[in-house]
Amino acid sequence: MTVKQQISAYAQWKKGNCYDLEDEQLTALYLDLSTDRFFVQWYSNFLFDEGNYIKAVNTIEKNKEIMRTPNLCIILGKSYLHLKDLKKAEDALIAAVNMVPNRFIPRLHLMMFYREIGELTKCVQVAQSIISLPIKIQSDEVNFVKREAKKILKTNLLNYYTND
Q: S-S: 96 plus which of 7, 16, 66, 70, CB 3.0-4.6 Å?
C-alpha cells in the first residue's frame, strides 16, 4: 500500500468510513496505528463483528500489555467464547470486571457468559453482585444492567422452585 493510500485509509477511519476499506488496507492501517488505543479497540471490535475471532484475539493479545482496557477484555472474552476456549474467555471477562470494579457493563458480559455456558451458580453470583453494586451515576445503561440481573435472579428462583 502506498503512502497516499495509507493516508486515505487513515482519513476514512477518522471519518468513520472504514467499513468500505479492503482487508489489505485495514491490515496496513493497523500496522501503522497499532499504538493508537482507539484504533486498536475499533479494529478489534470490527474483526469481532465480522466473525474474524482468531484475528481479533491475536490483535488484542499482541497489544494487551500496552493498552489493556475493559472493552478490549470484553471483546477478547467474547472472541474466546466463539472459539470455544472457555477458560481464556472467563479470564478475560473477569479481568474486565476487576479493572474497574464499579462498572456495570463488564459484569453484565460476565453474567451473560456464565448463563450461556450453563454455569448458573456463577451467573447468579454475578447477578447478585450487580444488584448490590452501588450506583454512582444513574443512567439508562445502569438501569438496563440491573434489570437483566433481576431477570436472572427471578428466572433462577422460578427454576429452583419448579424443579423440586
A: 70
DSSP letter (8 states) at residue 133: S
pLDDT tens, position by position, 8-22: 666 766 766 666 667
**Residue matched to cell numbers 445502569:** 142
At residue 81, what is the residue type?
Answer: L
In the chain, where does DSSP find H-type helix?
A: 3-15, 23-33, 37-49, 53-63, 70-82, 86-99, 105-117, 120-132, 140-162
Please answer whether residues 25 and 43 qualify as being in contact, where contact means their C-beta atoms are separated by less than 8 angstroms: no
Distance CA 47, CA 141 (A): 25
Q: How many DSSP H helices and E strands does the chain contain?
A: 9, 0
Task: Give buried/exposed letters for 139-150 (b at 16+ CB in 10 A, else e).
Answer: eeebeebbebbe
Predicted structure pTM score: 0.83
Helix (H, G, I), strand (E, B) or coil at 14: helix
pLDDT tens for 121-137 read 999 999 999 999 999 99
Q: CA-to-CA distance for 73 and 84, rounded, in angstroms?
A: 16
